[in-house]
Amino acid sequence: MADPATGRMWCSIPERFQLHIAMLALQFGYAGFHVVSRAALNMGISKIVFPVYRNILALLLLLPFAYFLEKKERPPLTLSLVVQFFLLAVVGIEQVRLNRKDGISKVLGTILCVVGASVITLYKGPTIYSPTPPSQRVNSPIPLSFGDASGKNWTLGCIFLIGHCLSWAGWLVLQSPILKKYPARLSFTSYQCFFGVLQFLVIAAFLERDPQAWLIHSGGELLSVFYAGVVASGIAFAVQIWCIDRGGPVFVAVYQPVQTLVVAIMASLALGEEFYLGGIIGAVLIITGLYFVLWGKNEERKFAAATQKAAIPSPADHSNNHAPSHIKSSLAQPLLPQSTENV
Asked: Domain EamA, which positions (predicted)?
């Protein structure tokens, strides 16, 4: 059972800081998923079976909470919402005002984050850190297959990565307008996992015909599937959709390059991969870009608050607005009071 004092302490933290803490934790969770997935795939688990089990575990985790906690606030499910859950068509975008410094800062920060992530992905440079010298890796406790670079196709990987980024961006942007129609966040996430299971089962019916591929052969594979389903899908999706609802899709997306940096560090430590100069350069660009975006969002919030405050008339202005009519009505009255005899 959770400590009540811990809950009160978390609630006392301002929401904007809660969002930042949640997004940083989310990036570490997703980074761990990438490293664990790499290990599982190198162990031999099927690329089709792995996401099926991942979505099934996430659905089993979220379904009880969604059913009992959101029973009263869950809107009725319509055909239109079902189609949006299944397709998540692109319908939203972030407003950026380039005539203000906050808008320029957000654009510049986003560009720096994208460039930083691209540098980490596309540029290696000289080796900065090597966990284990090549001559000693034979006796290393880290399996060679975890960090083995053989069989990699750099060009094909970059093409897949671009497709992943585009689909991920569309997915983030799409969740914000759908949440306005369907505010039950846990139920919304459960529906996504359910349709994910259906889609991957259809794909598996055509691409994965080997019954042995559906078996878990080792504890490492079981741990990878459990982490992917519970942490990287169930918990991560629930936290992410809360952040999208409170902070917007761009706020969530701007933290994505941090994930690239964390993956590079974790892969170096856990999988024995080398860390290159491109990782350092990319890290500096990502952190700088993140600062620019968050500063721009903060200035945008201040500007919106000042505009809203200026639009609300103060009590002094309210009394001044009535002052002329009061004076006018006073002048219109006779200087001497009328006699009450005529009443």
From this structure: 156-294
- pTM tops 0.70, yes or no: no
| Lowest model confidence (mean pLDDT) among 126-135, 145-154, 180-189 | 145-154
Q: Which two tokens stand for residue 233?
A: 């899908």
What is the SS3 assignment for 82?
helix
Beta-bridge partners for 129 = 275
The first and second tokens of residue 60, run together, are 């089993």
CA distance 280 to 250: 25
- What does the alpha-carbon distance between residue 261 and residue 42 come to, in Å, rounded to a whole number? 22
Give every CB contact of residue 258 below 8 A, 6+ residues apart in sequence: 24, 27, 286, 290
Give one DSSP letter per residue of 262-284, joined into a string: HHHHHHHHHS---EEHHHHHHHH
Contacts of 32 (CB under 8 A, 6+ apart): 227, 231, 232, 266
Half-sphere exposure for 28 (CA within 13 Å, toward CB): 5
* Cβ-contact 276, 125 below 8 angstroms: yes
Residues of the chain with pLDDT > 70, as a percent, come to 73
For residue range 21-39, what is the model confidence (pLDDT) as tens digits? 999 999 999 999 988 888 8
DSSP state letter for 150: T
